[in-house]
Amino acid sequence: MALINLTPSPNPIIFPHFLSPNLSFLSFQTTPRNTGRTRKTRAALREWREYEEAVKRKDLAGALSFLKSIDDPVETVNGSASLESTRSRLAELGLVVGYERDWEVLDTCLNADDMKLVCSAYGFLKDRGFLSNFGKCRNIVLEGPRNVTPTVLESSTGLEVTKLSPKKWGVSGSSSAVLIAFLGGVSFLLSKGIDVRPNLAAILGLAFMDSVFLGGCCLAQISSYWPPNRRRILVHEAGHLLTAYLMGCPIRGVILDPIVAMQMGIQGQAGTQFWDEKMANDLANGRLDGTAFDRYCMVLFAGIAAEALVYGEAEGGENDENLFMGICILLQPPLSVAEMSNQARWSVLQSYNLLKWHKHAHRAAVKALESGGSLSVVIRSIEEAMSSSK
Questions:
Q1: Backbone dihedral region of 58: left (phi > 0), alpha (psi from -120 to 50 degrees) or beta?
Q2: Which residue windows are transmembrane per the record (predicted)?
Q3: CA-CA distance, 387 to 100, in Å (whole number)?
Q4: pLDDT in tens, 361-381
Q5: What is the CATH number of domain 150-168+226-388?
Q6: How far from the centroid of its chain's Cα atoms is residue 93's Cα?
Q7: pLDDT tens sequence across 30-58
């Protein structure tokens, strides 16, 4: 694959519970016969409480270190290695505390600053057979035609190119209905002799300040409470998450609260943070491999593709497009407008087909996000959905 020169970036780019035993209620009767066994079990339970505390603190390093250590042989007093582990000691009493809890390490990724550590967490779970579909479609970017014209895109998806373009607020179907209702309400009040113009001016002024200084965060926060709009956000972010997962890009977390997203430096109503190690290394070296760029573009446009697949058109994704154009400008030489348009159409088509092939997993991810599930819950629901469809 040919390499594309890229201006080096000083900082790596990060792209935008299950039922468990309550260990505190367990008690054991100590008799001369089971004293040693009880002591070992209590020690094992204390160790698992340490893991629980690490998960609560979002301490990825501590939680991952614990999981890696509990399966290691334990040194005995005479220096010989024992195969007895924390898991096996708990299993002796029929307490299945182990592997069901390993998933929770993913919930600690959100606060991790070291993305290589996040990558290690995904590698750890994959090695133990949890993430069997992680990276399943990593090489899909090598397949299919590269030149995707508007006609090809429409024939493949059944949608016009305009349906796959993000809409400005007030132009899309849902937001235009809100705008019309708002204007209608203002007109009704004026017709009744109620002058709301001073209040309206204040509201518009606040909206302008929100747009300039907060990136529209406050308006996004308010609109996110409207069920149809929130559902669309979930569909959009689930598209990013599932595509990143199938492409083998570790996901640090999904932010659905606009204010929290703003605090974490994410523009828009929500954001999915994923990482591609190959692309990060290429960026650090000032060069970008074409395959890594394709993979990144697929994940980036997957939110638009998800909306188009579910609703027949996309409304969100303006920030995704802006980020895409920002990367394209950094390329040396930069992509032309025609090349950027083709790359965008190709990426949308690839993501659209990928999500269509795995729409059951996408629905499972949306459902898990809608119920307030953590990252581990969402990814586990994806794995279960893909396993049940085989």
A1: left
A2: 169-190, 202-222
A3: 17
A4: 999 999 999 999 999 999 999
A5: 1.20.58.760
A6: 37
A7: 444 455 555 656 666 676 788 888 888 88
- CA dihedral sign, ordered 250, 254, 260, 266: positive
Show the CA angle centred on residue 119, arms to residues 115 and 125, nearest 5°: 145
In 3-state terms the chain splits into helix, strand, coil percentages (rounded to 5) of: 60, 5, 30
How far is Cα 320 from Cα 328, in angstroms, rounded to an integer? 12
Structure tokens of 305? 């593709």
- Going from N- to C-terminal start, the domains of the chain cover 41-71+82-128, 150-168+226-388, 173-223
Q: Is residue 33 exposed (0-12), middle (13-18) or buried (19+ Cβ within 10 Å)?
A: exposed
Buried b (16+ CB within 10 A) or exposed e, 207-242: eeebeeeebbbbbbbebbeeeebbebbbbbbbbbbb
**What would the pLDDT profile of 147-187 be if each residue is shown by its tens digit?**
999 999 999 999 999 998 887 544 445 545 555 555 566 56
- Contacts by 358-365, CB closer than 8 A, 24 or more apart: 358/242, 358/246, 358/386, 359/309, 360/385, 360/386, 360/388, 360/389, 361/242, 361/385, 361/386, 361/389, 362/238, 362/239, 362/242, 362/306, 362/309, 365/238, 365/241, 365/242
β 271-274/251-255 pair status: antiparallel
φ/ψ of residue 347, rounded to 5: -65, -45
- Write the pLDDT tens digit of every residue in 188-215: 565 666 665 566 555 555 554 545 444 4
CB 4 within 8 A of CB 80: no
Q: Which of 241, 343, 349, 357 is nearest to 299 (CA)?
A: 241
Longest dimension (CA), the chain: 93
378, 380, 358, 362: which is closest to 130 by C-alpha?
A: 380
| C-alpha–C-alpha distance, residues 69 and 12, integer Å | 30
> How many angstroms separate the first and last alpha carbons of the chain?
33
Residue 253 pairs in a beta bridge with 273
